[in-house]
Amino acid sequence: MAKTIMLGNQAVAQGLYESGCVLVSSYPGTPSTEITEFAAKYDEIYAEWAPNEKVALEVALGGAIAGGRTFCAMKHVGLNVAADPLFITSYTGINGGMIIAVADDPGMHSSQNEQDSRHYAAAAKLPMIEPSDSGECLNFVKIAYEMSEKYDTPFILRLSTRVSHSQSIVETSPRQEIALKDYEKNPQKYVMMPANAKLRHVVVEERLDKLVEWTDNGCPFNKVEYNSKKIGIVTSGISYDYAKEVFGEDASYFKLGMVYPLPEKALVEFASQVERVIVIEELDDIFETHLKKLGIKTDGKNLLPKISEFSHELIREKLLGIKAEFSELDQTLPNRPPVMCPGCPHRGLFYTLKKMKLTVSGDIGCYTLGAVPPLGAIDTTLCMGASVSALHGFDKVRNNPKNTVAVIGDSTFMHSGITGLCNITYNQGISTVLILDNSITGMTGHQQNPTTGLTLKNQPVTPISIEKICEGAGVSPEHIRVCDPADPKQLEKVIKEEIDSDVPSVIIVRRPCALLKKVPKDTYYIINPDTCRSCRACMSIACPAISMTGSKPTIDTSLCIGCGLCKNMCRFDSITQVVR
Amino acid sequence: MVKNIMIVGVGGQGSLLASRIVGNAAMAQGYDVKVSEVHGMSQRGGSVVTYVRYGDKVHSPVIGRGEADIIISFEQLEAARWLSFLKKDGVLITSTQKIMPMPVITGSTQYPDELISQIKEKNIKVVAIDALSKAEKAGSIKAVNVVLIGAMTHYSNFSKQQLLDALKTSVPQKLLSVNLNAFESGYECEQTL
Ligand SMILES: Cc1ncc(C[n+]2csc(CCOP(=O)(O)OP(=O)(O)O)c2C)c(N)n1
């Protein structure tokens, strides 16, 4: 056993390794991404990026049916995409052990909504566990694989941003190799059609009863700590750490490591031992509702918010009435929202779209930042892939107004943009789709995808051609155009031509992400104050490296990477390149 | 006893390495450690914070307002933004670098004047260092984080050697000499409180 400090996500990967997991298939999504990146470092684990979460979960299920221990990870909204196979795994069960990790993001550090994944466990009737720190991430994975095989069910591992992205100390052990289980053809179990599924539903209910019984008898995930019995806290995950920080030994704890199904008898017993019960759970009131159903009187959401993440400061204030004491400056400070990086290829495109005053159906990725001022060029951002499909609906209802486009990144197009494009061509739409190909999955921190030519394990493969996909999806080749966003004039011309056309079209806006190593950063630009007329044209592109110093704009050379877009804006030839 | 150190700055400035050094130093002394990081959206040039906590037993991975013993800041405005997290007798160690946020660039608001003296007027212990030039002299502008860790040494309960050992385990071999230079220049710079 060796002690090291690890990110929660890394500890999950270590747990996979130690448990003899053989296959990992995931789609990136903050805060879950690093699990799969760390798992890929082990030679013993086959690991891949799938194009979306539904595919990933199905790959993991196929691998489990084949008899190996498998895994997939996703962010909370990814589980919406993977919900179809999720519900079916409950019916088929598995063969080799299977864990599905889902990382919630209370507080929306990097997400488009706040969603409590615990609802999925109840809806799909699958057991769900939730660790509180990195040590538990590792150990829970190991126990979950054993129990997954014992009860013939996948386990859902629920994480949250503060568990996934906090480091704490773990003890590691060597890998345990597990022989593949035999695969036997068993259509009653694995062919889900009505006759078989009716029988499997009975199995699902029986399994749930057995799991409930187990939670009350020796389930190692739950932990009861009796200290002062004045207050009894029922909690799970990161909320347990906050509660411990605030109450220490002044309260007793029922720490739910298994958040579905709940240990009903043990909870009733715990409640009877303490004077007052408080449920501390982030987001929805799932435990609280269940406790009330069991006839337990409890505080919970009457005192604590349903919105955003908790902290020990919040719990101390809401439950003990103790406010933090601190000093701060007596002025409101400017916000610092996320921005497109200096040199980001998306910048030239959104500058152009804003200039053209188009209605832009947006999507999710770094390019969502095209929605914020001063570019402010995006009208809608819904969920992955929706830019393409929703544009079709928009254009149909407004009778093809010819002033609309969709923007979608390369990874997002592979995730769920292709089906929307097929829908446009099939249903005689004429929409114009811009695919922002920056050669990487940018927003989530640079993952490879089917269009980049490398796998998760960095093996070279033939990249899937976006042009050919579009052609195969029914877009005629002369309406599949390729443009460089660093040349806004040409880009504007092409966009104009394609929105004016009466057929569906795709414009691939192609330039690699500025953060990629292969993008040269050996120059920067400077503004000559003598010829600069302060017209601010260079500032209209919203580059974080350009700001006003006195009455003239200047370029922060520590930030500039030399993309030259600002030079394109200057009408007085005042911006010049310098070699580092 | 739990010690609370916060590292704040602008996404992409290298706060993760700084927290790794402090976390490794604490673990080497046998402390329990928790480090809470930011990945994802705000790393795109937004305001970012990393919490490092160590002691006999650490529960929460985050730090509340009024609780930080030390705040290490990579940028002036961020120092001001996170000031409320500092303890009454805590120390703020900040780089004097200014990075304009988008609302300032677009002209919808202004970068506040004299932030460091305003903070000092609140009777807060401030160590302000031109860490960017020091890092550049040491060999890389990316070593700002290590300059600041060097300066922090005097206010932490780690010895210089303990932090140097942690630095060595936290950076790749080929970047070690630049980082050692950066650490020294931070360690030696004039401590104006
Ligand atoms: C269903 C779902 N899965 C994953 C995510 C997380 N996520 C947000 S944007 C993104 C991919 C962005 O990559 P790309 O489309 O290539 O655009 P880029 O960021 O590179 O500009 C991912 C995976 C999400 N928001 N929703």
Give an overview of the whole structure:
The complex is a heterodimer of chains A (580) and B (193). By secondary structure, chain A is an alpha/beta fold. Chain A folds into 4 domains: 215 residues, Rossmann fold; 98 residues, Rossmann fold, CATH 3.40.50.920; 165 residues, 3-Layer(aba) Sandwich (Rossmann fold); 57 residues, Alpha-Beta Plaits (2-Layer Sandwich). Helices cover 35% and strands 19% of the residues of chain A. Chain A has 20 helices and 24 strands. In chain A, strand 13, helix 13 and strand 14 form a beta-alpha-beta unit. The model of chain B has no long low-confidence stretch (mean pLDDT 93). With 193 residues, chain B is of the alpha/beta class. A 6-stranded mixed β-sheet of chain B has the order 2-3-1-4-5-6, sandwiched between helices. At the A-B interface, strand 1, strand 8, helix 11, helix 14 and strand 22 of A face helix 1, strand 2, helix 2, helix 3 and helix 4 of B. Strand 8 of chain A pairs antiparallel with strand 2 of chain B. Bound molecules: thiamine diphosphate. Thiamine diphosphate binds next to helix 4 and helix 17 of chain A.
